[in-house]
Fold:
Amino acid sequence: MEIEQIKKEIKDFENESIDITDDLRFNQKDLIKRIIYYYNSKFIKGQYDDQGDRKFFFNIVRNPCDVCTKAIDFDTKNINILTAKGGTELKTWFLERDLKFWMKDQRFGKVLNRIFHELPIFGSVVTKVIDGKVYFVDLRNFAVQQDADTLNQASYIIETHVYNPLEFKRIAKEKGWENWEDVLEEKEIKIYERYGEDDNLDYRRTIISDGGTELANDIIEQHPYWEFHLDKMSGRWLGVGKIELVLDPQIRINQIANQQVKSSYWSSLRLWQTRDTGTNRNLLTDVVNGQVLQGEDPITQVDMADRNLSFYQTEINRWLSNKDEITFSHEVTRGERLPAGTPLGSAELAAGMAGAYFGQIQENIALDVKEFLFKVIIPQFLKENNTKHTLRLVGDDLGTYHRMLISCKTNNEIFKYIAKGNGAPSSDQLELMKGVISEKVKKGKEKLIDLPKDFYKDLKYKIDINITGEQMDVRSRAANKLAALQAITADPTLLTDPRKRKFFRSWLEDGGLRLEDFDTEEEPQLNQVIQKGSGGGVSKPTMPTSPVSGTKEQRL
Structure:
């Protein structure tokens, strides 16, 4: 790839605009620049007007961005690993716990937080995965075919890097780049990293300096970038962010605010008028306190009052209302008190509509994050955790592990009991089996589980991001919890009967809750089972010396 072609692509990207439709032109570089200026309360053409007066920036773009970030945010706790068809539930359960510990160590939560922070600002976020590590791409140094729908469809992707000599020397040695010593002789160390098809239709990565020194050139399967978009517009690659939506309200409010500031300068002046030519020219400096002025005509003060204050306020409120309508950042979504006299039903309706609006955006982003997890994050986790390692279980995780292990071992004992020709065990015999196993399993407040090498090999799983009920207010969630508790109290079989349990799970999810929050059924203790079975004349079932049986995988 010649350096002249790369520079031409960058020049076209920066200077040429694309036609989205008639009389609607778009330039990504200019928009990114304007967004950065506006988000930081700066004017592109300087902070002083033609008269040398300071211009004031009345920022209305930050708040919609913050509201959107809060509304679409979700965390690693919302990421669930489910068992796919033909998979092992116990293995999947271990994977979910192990993965969340690993993501916490890798600070993946900060990656999600930054994605949700930058999406409303720019409309798009690009991450780069190198050796399993996630890096964020600066859109100021990122050139892409502007009218491409996705990065996979772009004819070129170019990322510009500017290094100091020491940093470049270290990176060049780490990457094994060729001819890097020649780059040190260039005036500025600017490196272009380009991805795209060559003349032979091979997808190629080219790393070359601004002076034309080629550092790497190889054929690859795909680029290392991952894209996330808040909203999309047909005809361009860059997504639509909240700042772009309120460009006109921001410009108009700045005009009104600075006009009012200019007016306040005049209003603060004290001027007098008279027809007498003999009167002092400046009453503030040429007269003293108590002096009597003599003249043929009276001296009157010039009225400098601004009579347009109501107009300014009405105009500002009009554009602020337009901003709220465009970005869905009304009082109820900003957490502000509603105007006096607003009916409770109207407030709840507004909150519900806002939740539905942001919920749709959140769902679209969750699909992109899910693909990112499935193709990047989890494969890297499995790569780093394919050796023997230890998993620590405490609290609710330990209780869930005990219930799953007791259930697994009880099933093994039932199979062995039937295999001996004794038929199916009675309910009392089954309770006795559970009691014996429970006494041996439930020991200690924590447990260290040794997971063998390649434990997750050939694992069949699927990913679900549970965002249901994220926008639900605290009162509604508390009411749903109380309703769930009343339902369990009235019918405990909701947690044991398969059909009822399935229905109960769906009902909880509709209310923003999870079945695991209520699934705390404890296994019977051995002494309780013996007392229950005494006097019944039921013979003690034949039990093995150790309840552990089956394969190594089942013993976990």
